[in-house]
Amino acid sequence: MSENNPFPNENNTGHFWDDTLRELSNDPPGWWTIGLHASWIWCLVYFFLYPSIPSLDLEGYSKGSLGWTAVSEYKADLAAIDEVRQKWEDKINDPKTSAAMILADDDLKNYTVRSAKVLFGDYCAACHGSGGSGNGAMSAAQSGYPVLADDDWLYGGTVEQIETTIYNGRKGIMPNYGARLSETEIADLAKHVVALSEGGEHAVGKELFINPTKGGCFACHGMDAKGMAALGSANLTDAVWRFEVSGGGDHRHASALHTIAHGVNSELIDPASRNAVMPAFGPLGKDLSAGSVKKLAVYVHQLGGGQ
What we know:
The structure is a single chain. The chain is mainly alpha-helical. The protein is built from eleven helices and two strands. It has three domains: 68 residues, no CATH class; 121 residues, Cytochrome Bc1 Complex, Chain D, domain 2; 80 residues, Orthogonal Bundle (Cytochrome Bc1 Complex, Chain D, domain 2). The chain has a two-stranded antiparallel ribbon. Helix 6 packs across helix 11. The protein starts with 11 loop residues before the first strand and ends in a 6-residue tail after the last helix.
């Protein structure tokens, strides 16, 4: 910093660097001064109008002369939305309005589907995926979750049947045959099940399938192996696998072997049994209202596979 002032006629502080750079002492621009004063005046006005300053009272902050809070604004907006929704909610919650009636009314169905999306995300998507795409088993011993967007239904795919499933839950039973059939017989049955899904059959496995003293699978799956909705038994002739393992082919055979040998929901008898339970969402389960269950039934029905 130079000790000499090379600019004696200039309004500066006397601080110089290399005799060229200097610190001036001019007043700030007028716009800057106006902005400074406007800022602190606006702060005072804001603190007077809105809750902002912490205080020592029980509430912990100043209330502001307008009495506004973000919570009160949220509640007011929510009340306005609820008022618009109320006429639709009243129709859905009316015991006389069935899920089928909701489907028949385009406006009511559109509202129901939109409002049920949140319910589905909260209660169903964790298992069945956000779009009902399901969540398959990753190994022969694991259980997956069914796809809701196809037309394959264990207990029926009408909106009434879907509503019953959601309301009461489901827990079918597939007995474990590991204690009554030999490994060879179980392997033959598995080959027949895989062949059925491909439009064929396995001669030895078929004999076991229809033999009431051996496999006796026809009792639940039917002589045509297409399953029974009343029992929740699977259709073995389609290409949809409840517990399919990724990869197909031998993986399907391994999955069929495990199911036949260890069963489903037979864990009290066989710890290796697959566990496949649809929880109840009515009063015996999650305790959703009848209206919410109807909403979910309509939403699931319209995902693509409703009958």
